[in-house]
Write a structure and sequence with these properties.
Structural class: mainly alpha
Low-confidence stretches: none
Helix content: over 70%
Order of helices and strands: HHHHHHH
Number of strands: 0
Radius of gyration: 17 Å
Number of helices: 7
Largest sheet: none
Shape: globular
Strand content: under 5%
């Protein structure tokens, strides 16, 4: 156990949670007609859930609750996937979408998260509760590369488009 890793997870989690709290507090902003201000609640939910998952990762590295490590790890993976779903919702919400496509496209994060959960629980039921922890290929590929990567890319495009308008 490296103390530097623990410190980094502590600071990173704190930064994400703080960003989430500030983003959620922006809903009372005087400029409520700007679409990015309306979407900040999803960025705030991303920050809080992602920060909490980093703190849970820190707790797992510290081995504080060894008897419950399997349950905590499973909860942590689901929480991290939920955070990426919130980021995807934020990114899709700030894109300049036509109204007739918007309703359909904004359901993509929920569908993606549900598909992740179906696959996650399928492997947990079929191969045992510790399958996703001992063989992290499914969770790594689906959560980080599909949910996380595309969430970041879509959010970056949305932020770029919003920045080019001003």
């Amino acid at each position: 156990m490296n103390p530097i890793n623990i410190l980094l997870l502590l600071i990173y989690g704190f930064a994400m949670i703080t960003m989430g709290i500030f983003a959620l507090n922006q809903k009372d902003s005087k400029i409520v007609n700007v679409s990015i201000i309306k979407s900040l609640k999803y960025l705030g939910l991303f920050g809080i859930t992602h920060g909490l998952s980093e703190w849970i990762s820190m707790i797992l590295q510290l081995k504080l609750f060894v008897a419950y490590e399997l349950y905590i790890s499973n909860f942590n993976l689901i929480l991290k996937a939920a955070s990426f779903a919130f980021l995807l919702h934020f990114g899709l919400d700030i894109l300049m979408l036509r109204d007739r496509y918007r309703k359909f496209i904004l359901k993509i994060p929920t569908v993606a998260f549900i598909l992740f959960l179906v696959g996650y629980f399928y492997f947990n039921i079929k191969c045992g509760c510790d399958y996703n922890l001992n063989n992290p290929m499914y969770t790594t590929i689906t959560m980080r590369y599909l949910l996380g990567f595309f969430s970041c890319m879509i959010t970056a495009v949305g932020l770029y488009k919003n920045a080019s308008l001003s």
